[in-house]
Amino acid sequence: MNFVGITHSLGGLVILALLGAVALLGLLLTGGGRLRLRNELAGETRVLLGIGALTAAVSMGGSLYFSEVVGFTPCVLCWYQRIAMYPLVLVLGIAAWRRDAGIWRYVLPIAGVGLIISIYHNLIQFRPALDIGTCTPDASCTARHVAAFGFVSIPFMAGAGFLLIGALMLTLRETERAGAADMEEMEEAEEALGAQGPEEGPHLGARDT
C-alpha cells in the first residue's frame, strides 16, 4: 500500500475513533446514558482496556511510519505526544490482560495531557502566529505534512487517539463505580440477613411447639 493509501486508511480509523469517543462522552453526560453503559458494559473491563491498548498501538505505529518509513522529522510537540502515547500501549495492554479496572486513574491524566498538547499543535498548524516559540527551524511544529480528507493531520490523529482513550477510561470509571455500588448493596443485604437470622430462630421454634 502506498503513502496515500496508508494515510487515508489511518484517516478513516481516526474518524471512527472520533465517532466512538463522541458517542461514549455523549452517553456519559446523561443519567440514562450512564445507566445504559453500566448495564451493557458491566464486566467488560478487558474489552474496554483492549480497545484502548489497540488505539495506542495504532497511534504509535502510525507515528513511527511517518517518521521512520516516510522520513518526516518529528517536531518538539510530536515528541511530547509520543511520550504520552507510547507508554499507554504497554500499560493498557498489561491492564487488559490482568482485567485491572482501576488503571483508569493513571491513564486518564496522561491521555488528558496528550490531548491538550494535540489541540495546541492543531491550533498552531492552522494559526502559526499563535506559536509561543515551541518550534525549531529544522523541525517545524506548524508544517502540515499530512492532511487526509483535507483535515486529518498527524496531530489530529494523535488527538483522536487520546480522546478515545480518555472516553474509554471515563466509561471504565463508570462501570467500576457501578460494580462497587452493587457489591456494597450485596454486602449490606447479607449483613441484614445475618442480623435477622438469630431473631427468627426462637419464633419458629415457638410455633412448632
Summary?
The protein is mostly helical.
What does this protein look like?
- The protein has 6 helices and no strands.
- It is mostly helical and 209 residues long.
- The protein is elongated.
- The relative contact order is 0.16.
List its traits:
mainly alpha, single chain, elongated, 209 residues, 0% strand
The proportion of strand residues reads under 5%
Sheet/helix structural class: mainly alpha
Amino-to-carboxy terminus distance: 87 Å
Largest sheet entry: none
- One letter per element, helices H and strands E, the order comes to HHHHHH
Strand and helix map with partners:
Blueprint: H1 3-28, H2 31-41, H3 45-70, H4 76-98, H5 104-126, H6 154-208
